[in-house]
Amino acid sequence: MAWANQYIAALIQRDVQDIANIDKLSQLPRFLRALANTAGQMSNCTQLGGNVG
Q: What tens-digit pLDDT sequence spans the chain (53 residues)?
């Protein structure tokens, strides 16, 4: 779990900031977890937004 958290943090700090202008970058890990929970299902953007805040 620690490795996964560090990997996501590294992606956010290095790659995402370089290629995207995201307003709420601190909430990206929560979004990725919520999105991963919908694997194999249709994504509901309203539900994802509610999970992330």
A: 899 888 888 877 777 777 777 777 778 788 888 888 888 888 788 888 887 87
Closest residue by Cα to residue 50 from 30, 24, 26: 30
- Helix (H/G/I), strand (E/B), else coil: 51: helix
CA 52 to chain centre: 9
**How far is the C-alpha of 49 from the C-alpha of 4, rounded, in Å?**
22
- How far is residue 39 from each of residues 1, 3, 34, 35, measured CA to CA in Å? 18, 21, 9, 7
